[in-house]
Amino acid sequence: MAHNEELSEFLRGRRAALRPEVELTGRRVKGLRREELASLAGVSVDYYTRLEQGRPISPSEAVLDAIASALRLDDAERAYLHTVARRTPTRRRVAPKAQSVRPGLLALIEQLGDAPAFVLGRRTDVLASNRMARLLMADFPAMPARERNAVRWLTLDEGARSLFAADWCQVASDMAGVLRMDAARHPDDPRTATATRC
């Protein structure tokens, strides 16, 4: 069974950091007990225990908000709790599927005539480009596979800097934003970290 270690560590750490309103002598548990936190959040002890163990369950927004309130989380911690609770634990890494472009889309970008167009895939990989994009920007199909990446091209190719001139910073910033969104959607993708490396 897969476990969500981030959620487990976060919940245990935050619970341990809380202090009971009344200190009891002889208390052996640091912070609140699971039973006390479950009671404050209005969930069963069993359910909270399974969450804290990182079991693959999907708590509702209301349950997460109740737990966040019981743990006295600030806004950033609350947002983090929601993020890690929604993350699906993976058992093993699966090789990414090969990216492809539908024939209809290829035909469409070729019909754009004088307008340069290209199709981006995961990690801003350039999957296809029309004739004008190959003439004006770069001949992506002629590049080695690992170099066919829009962010890589924008940051490393002097021709890209010359092409966009004064707008280069904005274009590069926008493209880096696209790469960041892809990384957020696919946090376990090992190739995302190397998308712009030389």
UniProtKB/TrEMBL annotation:
| SMART domains attached to this UniProt entry | HTH_XRE (SM00530)
**InterPro entries given for it?**
Cro/C1-type_HTH, Lambda_DNA-bd_dom_sf, MLTR_LBD
All copies of the HTH cro/C1-type domain together span 27-78
**One term of GO molecular function:** DNA binding
- Listed name of the protein: Transcriptional regulator, contains XRE-family HTH domain
Source organism: Paractinoplanes atraurantiacus
Coiled-coil region list: none
